Amino acid sequence: MSARSLDQLERLLVQQDEPQLSPEQYKAVFRRHPAGVAVIAFQGPAGPVGFTATSVISVSAAPPLLAFSLASTSSSWPALRDATTVAVSFLSDAQDDVSARFATSGVDRFADGGWRALATGEPVIDGAVSWVRGRVLQRTPVGDSYLVALRALEHGTDADASALVYHDRAYHRLGDHTAI
């Protein structure tokens, strides 16, 4: 995100005459909001790039669109800025170690294996509940992050797997597939 864009956003926010949450208050709210866990992965100039995300959202079924956010300060951002396609692997409840690995900075997140490249090159995490390969449509600067919109191109699912959930700084297993 350019300094100019951030300055414009800051001016707009200052113009609004209403109090807002502090970063600590905001984080406290979202720590209490459970979220599914995904790994976003793609081919970068020096090989595969990937990171953990709990911000993946469904945007539209027709056309099939999804989105996620990534901090502009992320080590993955420079490669994502130029990526044309990515794979989103929704992790299973047995993959908290995979989530932790892809959330760790300064390590080769792909070195331990547990993934495969699609025919088009994007890495997909083995054992994920489901995955979606998507074309990047838009990268929108929002605050200190980017909202990245994708058009879903292909997918895979594992009907026997259960999703990994992140809530209050800890991983959780849903375990019971019974809807209430």
From TrEMBL:
It comes from the Bacteria. InterPro entries: Flavin_Rdtase-like_dom, NADH-dep_flavin_reductase, Split_barrel_FMN-bd. GO terms for biological process: pyrimidine nucleobase catabolic process. Keywords: Oxidoreductase. GO terms for molecular function: FMN binding; riboflavin reductase (NADPH) activity. Residues 30-173 form the Flavin reductase like domain. Pfam families: Flavin_Reduct. PANTHER family: FLAVIN REDUCTASE, FMN REDUCTASE (NADH) RUTF. This is Flavin reductase (DIM6/NTAB) family NADH-FMN oxidoreductase RutF. It comes from Cellulomonas cellasea.
